[in-house]
UniProtKB/TrEMBL annotation:
NCBIfam families: matE. This is MATE family efflux transporter. Keywords: Membrane, Transmembrane, Transmembrane helix. The lineage of its organism: Bacteria, Bacillati, Actinomycetota, Actinomycetes, Pseudonocardiales. The keyword Transmembrane applies.
């Protein structure tokens, strides 16, 4: 039988990792979409309470995604070096970190839920509903973080299919339980808004249990000569926390930009903020799609560097080839999305709103959004390459510089000079272009391509 000549890290490998990763990335938004559809039937006040609480709870997954991305980068290097037990040990240690951080979030959340919800919603029924939902949902925080850690090490060993199954199982359970727990059945009236929080916790517990079981199976199957360490390892935890710090700071930079953009858009009136929100949600959807490609890049680049010998450029040639290939695919995908959104402009905005003032305002942001798709395709792909190489400190610094030097000044100048959405989305364009130059030069320099099972 002839030997396969398929290039490792090619289109098939990227699709094999990226396609199952997409439903996992969409898991938390899907939780909230199901909740919104079910709770919406209770009326405006419960729905408003869910909106406030959902934004607060979403910060858990938004700010703590280093448990996935950081773990993937470290586990992928060990996987590439042929050290599966060491790769899974990274997952074990990340799970310990998830439990500790999750319990801290649960405790602090119970203390802060009421004052924070009242700051966002004001005192009254909306704040009370948000607090009730949030205090129950917070019991799922450790489970969400265990799931993030599980995703991280499984992506590192290039398994994105099992995580997809685990997360979809949780989502299916939530979708089935939520209507019953919220609205009841027969003579039982249900638990109202709080029922959706219970459904989410149950679903998150199921998903986390699958990931814990996967760790237990790996540990049982590991050879006696190369066991998977169960006890906490302070050296590994310290390294994971260092990378996590950089990724959390980077994430805070994103949050500051997008929250400022929404706040300034609101100053220009309801049509502006509504139009901005519609296009921004499409942008968020696009980040899920492009993040799936970035995850594939992480796993493949990390593995290639882990397999590389420490003998100069020749040892990292495969990693650099994968980086170039992923970047091309990101560009092609971005160009295709630009064409699709340009073609859908006459019909897609009308799916979200029938308000004529909002529809008249949307084109200002729409064409920025469309034109930025190729840039986003390349930036997200290179983000994945650099994350896979463990180059989190560089990404942290350049993201903050792009925010401080590009996005934030344009946002607030838009408010001062009345530039409206055109100024806000010019700021987003500047943010993306600064990042494009930064990650492009970094990728071309090759300084990210440090070979070995562990990045120094």
């Amino acid at each position: 039988m002839p030997r396969s000549t398929r290039t490792p890290g090619g289109a098939r490998d990227i699709a094999r990792l990226a396609v199952p990763a997409l439903p996992v990335l969409a898991a938390e938004p899907l939780y909230l979409l199901v909740d919104t559809a079910v709770v919406g039937r209770l009326g405006a006040v419960p729905l408003a309470g869910l909106a406030v609480a959902g934004v607060l709870f979403a910060q858990v997954t938004t700010q703590l995604t280093f448990l996935s991305y950081g773990t993937t980068a470290r586990a992928a290097r060990f996987h590439g070096a042929g050290r599966r037990s060491a790769a899974v040990t990274e997952g074990m240690q990340a799970t310990w970190l998830a439990v500790v951080v999750g319990l801290a979030v649960l405790g602090l959340g119970q203390l802060l839920a009421a004052p924070v919800a009242r700051v966002l919603a004001g005192s009254g029924e909306i704040a009370d509903g948000a607090v009730g939902w949030l205090r129950i949902a917070l019991f799922g925080a450790p489970m969400v973080l265990i799931t993030l850690a599980g995703n991280g090490w499984m992506r590192g060993v290039q398994d994105t299919v099992r995580p997809m199954r685990y997360v979809l199982a949780g989502n299916a359970l939530s979708a089935l339980m939520c209507p019953f727990l919220v609205h009841g059945a027969g003579d039982w009236d249900g638990w109202g808004l709080e029922g959706s929080a219970v459904a989410n916790v149950a679903a998150q517990t199921v998903s986390a249990t699958f990931f814990l079981r996967a760790l237990a199976v790996e540990r049982r199957r590991a050879p006696a000569s190369d066991p998977i360490r169960l006890a906490p390892d302070t050296a590994v935890l310290r390294a994971q926390t260092t990378m996590g710090r950089d990724l959390v700071i980077r994430s805070l930079g994103f949050q500051a930009c997008f929250l400022s953009a929404t706040a300034v858009a609101a100053r220009f009136g309801a049509p502006s903020v509504a139009a901005h929100q519609i296009v921004l949600q499409l942008w968020v959807f696009q980040t899920l799609v492009l993040d799936a490609v970035a995850i594939a890049a992480q796993a493949l680049v990390g593995s290639a560097l882990g397999a590389a010998r420490s003998d100069g450029p020749e040892g990292t040639a495969h990693a650099r080839a994968v980086a170039a290939r992923v970047t091309r695919y990101g560009l092609v995908l971005g160009c295709l999305f630009a064409i699709v959104y340009a073609a859908l402009f006459p019909v897609l905005p009308g799916v979200f709103t029938a308000d004529l003032a909002v529809l008249a305002t949307i084109p200002v942001a729409w064409w920025f959004f469309t034109a930025l798709q190729p840039v986003a395709g390349v930036v997200f792909a290179l983000d994945g390459v650099l994350l896979g190489a463990g180059d989190a400190a560089f990404l942290r610094t350049t993201t903050l510089l792009a925010a401080i030097g590009g996005f934030l000044p344009m946002i607030w100048l838009s408010l001062v000079f009345g530039w409206g959405l055109a100024g806000i989305w010019t700021g987003l364009a500047a943010f993306m272009l600064v990042r494009l130059v930064a990650v492009g030069l970094r990728a071309r320099s090759g300084r990210w391509a440090v070979p070995g099972a562990v990045r120094p």
